[in-house]
């Protein structure tokens, strides 16, 4: 007999055994019956669009523009001049800016279309510790102001706007934002403007940004950016790929998200390791009345094979800024350890917008305080002009195939009074929970099957058979692009 889907998430025989013992104990029929609710889902090994291993016809080294890699000389002009020069090759197949081994201190510089920024082994681009080397730019219209302070905001170290076909890659190089000056100014409240991101791509469409740790050796364990310190931020982009990137910021650094796709579509994040002081990945789309007015959703976000930890925040977060809407988020094969929260949705009255059609599957947790957390009263508003009656719509959230060891609380799920979060579906979740009160749910309505410890009352009703169609991806066959079965998904009995 062939069965599908239900067993995914259990990659070790003993987990499998535990699962079977549990399910046999509970209800064998349910396991089998579930299958018709959840047809076999087949993914290809990579979900991201692949870049061709590009060869740019032209290449220059940053040293040809007078750069000095001593960690002390400021090279902003060299980066700017090199990129200005390479602009003349944009319509001739593009060009490569080669950054050799060394410590290349620089202020903010702008990328151009058809550019590959290549960091060789032991190349480190270092962010200047002088805030004046980080110019100030307008706030994003969907935020109405800087996120941390009213008014403008510092520009990112590596910045791109209105671009196409940009690649940042290399042989295990590093971009180090040297964020600590910003953290201390944030902490001692001496910031003049909102803090910058490490890399920011704005309004870049129809192309791939690939931040890939290409190397002479193939494999999934080579990473490009071992020290980011500041965020990777994508606003209003289409078709962005982030692959094989490692992002490290100290666990106690303030608001150092790893990657924030914001009001963007078709973003694919794959094979990354992230350890930060805030959310590892936060999916956003604008803030209260500004986000509602701008109305640019974040959609078609794929996250695949992410490993990481955050002591204060979540592995995958949606919101809290989600006023332009967030939908079609597919998260699969992720592992979080020594973390505060694994999966989180944050919103608030005033946000408006929606979070819908979210699918999270095959999550492995170790030492995590809260596995699933929804927060309906997050607060934080840009100003007093927000509309408290602009209530967010949170619906069709499916979380399935989760195993967890040493979990404190399984779920802390708080909707909004008068604005229930609906069609939240939990399937095949087995958590070793220490709390005597593993689920705490309010203003939420949904369904569950095979959840241990047993889900809270508002989610207790079975998914199968009547509610399959109420649950995102419990009834619809997932689109499987060009892929064949890679073996692990189906099991023959
Ligand atoms: C679940 O994810 C892990 C990585 O976190 C992977 O090794 C495993 O193969 C996945 N399981 C299935 C059934 O795809
Ligand atoms: C991007 O496009 C907008 C609108 O055309 C324009 O105002 C802005 O100056 C452009 N920015 C850059 C850096 O090209
Ligand atoms: C984005 O770029 C397009 C063309 O490149 C331009 O028309 C549009 O105004 C830009 N929008 C923003 C917000 O930069
Ligand atoms: C890449 O860099 C990191 C940190 O600098 C190092 O730990 C790792 O071994 C390097 N990997 C390769 C393949 O050079
Ligand atoms: C705040 O931190 C910045 C950066 O470390 C430092 O230059 C400044 O002197 C500090 N200001 C106060 C008032 O502590
Ligand atoms: C949960 O973890 C504890 C401590 O590691 C262990 O003793 C117990 O057997 C585990 N329970 C399950 C159901 O795996
Ligand atoms: C459940 O969560 C609410 C907040 O939503 C909190 O006030 C309450 O104390 C929690 N109950 C338990 C038993 O933890």
Automatic annotation (TrEMBL):
Keyword Endoplasmic reticulum: no
Main subcellular localisation: secreted
Protein name in the entry: Polygalacturonase
Pfam families, per database record: Glyco_hydro_28
Subcellular location(s) of the protein: Secreted, Cell wall
Species this protein is from: Vigna mungo
Membrane-spanning residues: 20-43
GO molecular function term, any single one: polygalacturonase activity
Domain of life of the organism encoding this protein: Eukaryota
Similarity remark: Belongs to the glycosyl hydrolase 28 family.
This protein's record includes keyword Transmembrane helix: yes
Entry keywords, A to Z: Cell wall, Glycosidase, Hydrolase, Membrane, Secreted, Transmembrane, Transmembrane helix
Any Gene Ontology biological process: carbohydrate metabolic process
InterPro entries tied to this protein: GH28_Enzymes, Glyco_hydro_28, PbH1, Pectin_lyas_fold, Pectin_lyase_fold/virulence
């Amino acid at each position: 007999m062939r069965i599908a889907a239900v067993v995914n998430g259990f990659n070790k025989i003993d987990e499998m055994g535990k699962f079977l013992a549990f399910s046999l104990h509970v209800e064998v029929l349910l396991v089998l019956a579930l299958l018709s609710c959840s047809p076999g889902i087949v993914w290809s090994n990579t979900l991201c669009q692949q870049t061709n291993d590009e060869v740019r016809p032209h290449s220059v080294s940053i040293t040809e523009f007078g750069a000095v890699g001593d960690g002390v000389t400021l090279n902003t002009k060299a980066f700017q001049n090199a990129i200005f020069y390479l602009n003349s090759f944009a319509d001739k197949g593009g060009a490569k800016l080669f950054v050799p081994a060394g410590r290349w201190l620089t202020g903010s510089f702008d990328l151009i279309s058809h550019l590959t920024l290549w960091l060789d082994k032991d190349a480190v681009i270092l962010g200047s510790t002088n805030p004046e080397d980080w110019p100030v730019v307008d706030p994003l219209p969907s935020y109405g102001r800087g996120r941390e302070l009213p008014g403008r905001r510092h520009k990112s170290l590596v910045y791109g706007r209105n671009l196409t076909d940009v690649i940042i890659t290399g042989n295990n190089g590093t971009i180090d934002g040297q964020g600590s000056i910003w953290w201390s100014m944030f902490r001692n409240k001496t910031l003049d403007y909102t803090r910058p991101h490490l890399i920011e791509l704005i309004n870049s469409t129809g192309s791939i940004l690939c931040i890939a740790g290409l190397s002479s050796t193939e494999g999934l364990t080579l990473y490009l950016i071992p020290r980011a310190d500041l965020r990777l931020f994508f606003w209003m982009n289409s078709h962005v790929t982030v692959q094989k990137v490692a992002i490290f910021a100290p666990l106690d650094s303030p608001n150092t998200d790893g990657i924030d796709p914001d009001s963007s579509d078709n973003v694919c994040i794959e094979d990354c390791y992230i350890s930060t002081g805030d959310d590892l990945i936060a999916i956003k789309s604008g803030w209260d009345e500004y986000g509602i007015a701008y109305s640019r959703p974040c959609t078609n976000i794929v996250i695949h094979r992410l490993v990481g930890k955050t002591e204060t925040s979540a592995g995958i977060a949606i919101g809290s800024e989600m006023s332009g809407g967030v939908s079609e988020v597919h998260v699969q094969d992720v592992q979080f350890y020594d973390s505060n929260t694994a999966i989180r949705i944050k919103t608030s009255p005033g946000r408006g917008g929606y979070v819908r059609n979210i699918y999270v599957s095959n999550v492995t947790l170790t030492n995590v305080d809260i596995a699933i957390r929804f927060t309906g009263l997050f607060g934080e508003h840009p100003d007093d002009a927000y509309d408290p009656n602009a209530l967010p719509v949170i619906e069709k959230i499916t979380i399935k195939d989760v195993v967890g060891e040493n979990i404190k609380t399984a779920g802390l799920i708080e909707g909004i009074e008068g604005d229930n979060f609906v069609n939240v579906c939990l399937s095949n979740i087995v958590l070793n929970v220490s709390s005597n009160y593993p689920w705490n749910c309010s203003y939420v309505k949904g369904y569950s099957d095979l959840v241990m410890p047993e889900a809270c009352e508002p989610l207790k009703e079975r998914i199968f058979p009547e509610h399959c169609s109420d649950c995102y991806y419990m009834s619809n066959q997932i689109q499987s692009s060009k892929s064949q079965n890679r073996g692990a998904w189906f099991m023959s009995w």
